Amino acid sequence: MADESLFDFLHMEIVSHIYKEQQSSKGEMDNKDRAVCVSVLESMGFRVGQGLIERLTRDSPSFKDELDVMKFVCKDFWTKVFRRQVDNLRTNHQGTYVLQDNKFSLLTQLSSGKQYLDQAPKYLAFSCGVVRGALSNLGMDSVVTAEVSVMPSCKFQVVVQKL
Amino acid sequence: MSRQSNRTTDSKKMNSELFTLTYGALVTQLCKDYENDEEVNKQLDKMGYNIGVRLIEDFLARSSIGRCQDFRETADVIAKVAFKMYLGTTPSVSNWSPAGDEFSLILENNPLVDFVELPDNHSMLVYSNLLCGVLRGALEMVQMAVDVKFAQDTLRGDNVTEIRMKFIKRIEENLPAGDE
């Protein structure tokens, strides 16, 4: 019922708020401050991802294997959260997956090309958390990072943690 | 709530969940960062304001609504167009003050509070306070200074959610000093 744009507005404001709050205590932001911001955003995303995947998979049967889970994430989950499917999924079949989204919805409004490339990580932290949270509730502990070389194309790297 | 198997309804509902859950994560984080509910309410209002000043442009672009003639028209546009467009719900406009400068929006349902319960130690928290800031910020961009607050909140035990809006004054456009 809520319009899609509301999430975009909210997400941008959340990022802005987190960085402003961290900066207000001192003048400059150093790498440690930036890491704190990213970490806060990522953990917010984690909770959201957990909740979303629960709602989405309530009535689905369990998944066959890791690859099945990742395909679900790339198709159904990505469509639910980021309004399109992942364009490309690669894996080394040893627990590392790379999900490539060529028009990542949270980056399309920032730029297309190289402008603001250094700002991209701020806007990806939450999403990494969302993915990590979703996988966590599907039984996969992972580390999720994202990298951008040309906006709005984005690569998410998922490294599954084996116990 | 019955689930329609209509594709469009489903996907709109899903996006609503993303927004609702994200908002919940935000409020939770703010409660962690600030000691008391009053501070959290203030932050939500501030963030809402920042969103509102941008949202108004999105709204004006998508709705092609022209200038409102008076505050009554403003109220109608907010309830019937804006709320419908963004939150998928149409509040009713009521409780007009005799001077016509104050009214209430009564919301039957508030997507922000799906799945939400307030714990006992946060009785002063105005969970949806972001909305007040959004309305305030948006209207300021169309030259209206308003005061917006929640008069009733289903999360705090009331039957309905009621937002009270009061017109303060018209903001004169500040034209830059030019060569006369």
From TrEMBL, chain A:
Query: Which GO annotations describe the biological process of this protein?
Result: endoplasmic reticulum to Golgi vesicle-mediated transport; nervous system development
Among the entry's GO cellular component annotations, what is one? endoplasmic reticulum
Q: Name one Pfam family in it.
A: TRAPP
Matches recorded under InterPro entries: NO_sig/Golgi_transp_ligand-bd, TRAPP_component, TRAPPC6/Trs33
What are the entry keywords? Endoplasmic reticulum, Golgi apparatus, Neurogenesis
Keyword DNA damage applies:
no
Main function: Component of a transport protein particle (TRAPP) complex that may function in specific stages of inter-organelle traffic. Specifically involved in the early development of neural circuitry, likely by controlling the frequency and amplitude of intracellular calcium transients implicated in the regulation of neuron differentiation and survival.
Family recorded in the similarity comment: Belongs to the TRAPP small subunits family. BET3 subfamily.
Question: Which PANTHER family is this protein grouped with?
Answer: TRAFFICKING PROTEIN PARTICLE COMPLEX 6B-LIKE, TRAFFICKING PROTEIN PARTICLE COMPLEX SUBUNIT 6B
Which named protein is this? Answer: Trafficking protein particle complex subunit 6B
TrEMBL record, chain B:
Quaternary structure, per UniProt, is: Homodimer.
Sum up the protein's function in the record's words: May play a role in vesicular transport from endoplasmic reticulum to Golgi.
What subcellular locations does the record give? Endoplasmic reticulum; Golgi apparatus, cis-Golgi network
The organism named in the record is: Cottoperca gobio
Q: Which gene encodes it?
A: trappc3
Q: Which UniProt keywords apply?
A: Endoplasmic reticulum, ER-Golgi transport, Golgi apparatus, Lipoprotein, Palmitate, Transport
The molecule here is called Trafficking protein particle complex subunit
Give the family, as the similarity comment puts it: Belongs to the TRAPP small subunits family. BET3 subfamily.
Q: So which domain of life are we looking at?
A: Eukaryota
Q: Which Gene3D superfamilies match?
A: Trafficking protein particle complex subunit 3
Write out the GO cellular component annotations: endoplasmic reticulum; Golgi apparatus; TRAPP complex
